[in-house]
Amino acid sequence: MKFDYLIVGAGYAGCVMAERITSELGKKVLIVDKRDHIAGNAYDYYDEAGLLVHKYGPHIFHTSSKKVWDYLSQYTEWNPYVHHVKAVVEGKLVPVPFNLNSLYTVFPPDFAQKLENKLIGYYGFGLKIPILKMRETDDADIKFLAEYIYKNVFLGYTIKQWGLKPDELDYTVTSRVPVFISRDDRYFQDTYQGIPKYGYTEMFKKIIANKNIRILLKTDYKEIIDDIKFDKIIYSGPIDYFFDYSHGELPYRSLKFSLVNFDMEQFQSGAQINYPNNHDYTRITEFKHLTMQNHHRTTVAYEYPQPYVIGENDPYYPIPRAENDEIYKKYAADAEKLKNVIFVGRLADYKYYNMDQIVGVTLQKFEKSIAHLR
Ligand code: FAD
Ligand code: UDP
Predict the structure, then answer these.
(1) DSSP state string for 9-43
(2) Full-prediction pTM beyond 0.90?
(3) pLDDT 10s digits, 138-151
(4) Ligand 1, atom nearest to 349 Cα
(5) Which atom of ligand 2 is nearest to the CA of 274?
(6) The domain 2-78+198-249+318-373 is classified under which CATH number: 2.60.120.1440, 3.90.1300.10, 3.40.50.720, 3.40.50.2000?
């Protein structure tokens, strides 16, 4: 059988492309994934106790793009879940992103009030300030607060998560969780937030439910590429692997997930608790809060960051910093020269994309590079 497109990777990038190509162009595609399931890192499944869990860490959907929300909403209904996170600081549970409410959990009320007034006067209500920016202030009170937040919320967590200090990473990494001059405790302020009502994997099954899409699992595309006929490739795996590491390895960060089931209704007060300062894990997530499942037991995930080692674990995070971008640019230049291969995905683009971003980028890439074949 001949395919029009060979798609490498059954995550968002691969499956959304497959859907677009088959629905819009009526072409035939083969999706190949080396894992034994679809949905990429968003994969969820029912564990032995019957709880719906996320295999590769907690996945919370949020977007301000109506286009992306409407696109996915064709394939799922949503649980109206809004994410809240607390971090353990000096033994107390502190709302993160650090905001005006957080002040009152760690400081005496009068002092917290003074800092609140200062922050509102200095920055204005409703502003978001990246911690590295806040540390540059010359106001003594704000400098004190910035150092407190940096030391207690960011430093330990970032060293655990990345093996690097915040200022050794691109500014955008810690800016994902800015100090928020607000009473808004939500982790994200996006217009649309939720968790697919029947899970991510069910949503993916619907995205690729087209007779012109074939799936081959448990197969690295390099094992079969010479044995199948196709015209073009869509590649969503690591870009350095595609080019046989010709410019050297791109660094990634990996994680070990430890999923533990407990004989209790509820393990912790909310979906996610961060541990910036103690323990080897960065965070514990209790899935029931996300899935809204009723069950007499509960499962939580502990996340232990790890260096990425080829062949031993998975490359979960590109590591955003200038020296890595330099390596990526060399691969991107090679990719540009290949007219029959389209690169798209968190690992193929070496970008720290959230789910909504990768859906948006994939839809755009389809429109730009493929839709004209209609
Ligand atoms: P992936 O989902 O990684 O899919 C790529 C697929 O390609 C994989 O299935 C892989 O097996 C396959 N593949 C790779 N190489 C080969 C090969 N040689 N041959 C065959 N198959 C191959 N985003 C959010 O919006 N909210 C969250 O809460 C969130 N939490 C996250 C938590 C963690 C721990 C991680 C790691 C990511 C999180 N994300 C979150 C990001 C989200 O997972 C990604 O944005 C999204 O999965 C990227 O989709 P993708 O298709 O680019 O890549
Ligand atoms: N971060 C931190 N402490 C926290 C939360 C986040 O230091 O309590 C930093 C850390 O460097 C982390 C980054 O902010 O990697 C981005 O956090 P986010 O929650 O967006 O990470 P993700 O969910 O993508 O792993």
Answers:
(1) --SHHHHHHHHHHHHHH---EEEE-SSSSSSGGG-
(2) yes
(3) 999 999 999 999 99
(4) 52
(5) 8
(6) 3.40.50.720
